[in-house]
Amino acid sequence: MINYFTTYSRENGGRVLLLFLLFLLAIYEFITAGFQTFAIVCVLPFIILFVYVAFRWRMFTFWVLITINYFIQLKDISLPVPMSLPNEILELILLGIAVIDARQDPHFQRACNLMLFGLFFWLGYCCIEVLNDSCSLGINIASWFTGFRLMALQLLWIFLIFTIYIASPKILMTYLKVWALFSLFSAFWVWKQETFGFTTAEKQWIETRGRSTHILNAGTLTRYFSTFSDAANYGCNAAAAAVSFIIFGITTPLRKDKVFFLTISVFVIWGFFQSGTRTAIFCLAAGLILYVFLSKSIKIAIPFTVTFILFAFILIFTNIGNSNQQIRRMRSAFNKDDASANVRDINKDAIRKYIKDAPWGIGLGMSPDNIPVNNKFRKLSTIPPDSEYVFIWVHTGPIGMTVFLISMAIMLGGACRIVLFELKNKTLIGIGGGLCGSFVAIQLGAYANQVLYQYPNGLTFFGGLAIVYVLPYLEPEWIEWEKKRLAEEEKKKRQKLEKKLVSRV
């Protein structure tokens, strides 16, 4: 037995010794520190294996990030670590790989653009926020860094990752289709919730924390939240995604892609209606209106305008579909006397009274957990912000809100300029216009709901805007790739026609 072990160890180098040492360490930690440390040591080999796989197949890591980001809000997924940690680890691994590969592939050169400038403008202000002591509690580096990491730094990671890893037409189209399939799955999950009911974890959430906002009209109306944190997050995401899928579908010359994106857009729109998120209607409209402007095409502008006016007329001035509670709820979005809108106005008035004494806000990362009860600004941390813009307003003040809006305008303006003046290929103009439309849609959703920094929206829509800046670099290769795909489609069509003619003979 000893000879066998010695021979095996000699053939397999130091791997046996390493595993044996890890085993001893795990047992030692279990005895001295408990099960949690023991579990961490046991997982260590798998972490090492994953890091190896990540560096060996970097695109695999990218797709893992996209998948985890989209489904991390599933109620049945419970993590023993902060929800942001898996995303951040994968993002840093991908950036580390990119730095190592920088000598062979100068991908960081593509990052020098207006979006980076806009992000640095926002990051610079958030760095200054470390000195913010509006609450007179002293400088809290830990709380500041938590807020800075989630509200600013992650946007930079997202921008760099999409700029670097969306490096070819094939990867771009694969990403758009993966996004569409994930959105389709979310619509399917809504249908599953509506038809077969909620899972145990979903039921527990909706009967406790989510009951007041998701079970309405004396229990007769349920707002479905799919794979997302809540119905507002899902509704705004689905509406913004639908903008892109509609535009991708009408601008691609490939019949297969046209059918794929337009079909999915129908299911996604159906899904956001089941969420009962009234803002979603305005998100969809705003995104499509921006694209009408970017398209510079009367042929596109006229049918879009007619369809939008007809849709708005039906919702505002008729009772069509009123037998459906979800449609009735959507119709209430046009009611100026809506109770929930009045509550939000009351909250904003209360915030406005306090925030005038805190032009820099209460500080990044400040919350009821670290602001004493007797503090003047404790009230600001407890009032429900209702929207992402109000949240930013509270934590960074009117000055920060202004900086944030200017940053978003710079990033969006640069992307729109690319679509309007730099791109020549109609399909890429459609992709760029669709992604810009989605970005506007989710920003409008953030005006009424706290969704901009919620998963999966940050990666999806800021990443989408980063793609627009990459499109001019991909255009020459895209034109050749699209010609090849069109030729293949024509060939298949011709072969199908020839078979049909032969069968008739």
Any descriptors?
single chain, 505 residues, mainly alpha, two-stranded antiparallel sheet, 74% helix, globular
Low-confidence segments: 8-20
The chain-level mean pLDDT equals: 83
The biggest beta sheet reads: 2 strands, antiparallel
Task: Give the number of helices.
Answer: 20
- Name the structural class: mainly alpha
Q: List the helices and strands in order.
A: HHHHHHHHHHEEHHHHHHHHHH
Total beta strands? 2
Strand content: under 5%
Descriptive account of the structure:
The N and C termini lie far apart (76 Å). The model is unreliable at 8-20 (pLDDT under 50). A hairpin with a 4-residue loop joins strand 1 and strand 2 (221-222). The protein has helices spanning 2-11, 15-32, 35-56, 58-71, 84-100, 114-128, 141-165, 169-196, 200-206, 211-214, 231-251, 255-275, 279-295, 298-317, 325-331, 339-355, 378-382, 388-422, 426-448, 457-504; strands spanning 215-216, 221-222. 74% of the residues lie in helices and 1% in strands. The protein is globular. A two-stranded antiparallel ribbon has the order 1-2. Helix 2 (15-32) packs antiparallel against helix 3 (35-56), helix 5 (84-100) packs across helix 7 and helix 18 (388-422) packs antiparallel against helix 19 (426-448). By secondary structure, the chain is mostly helical.
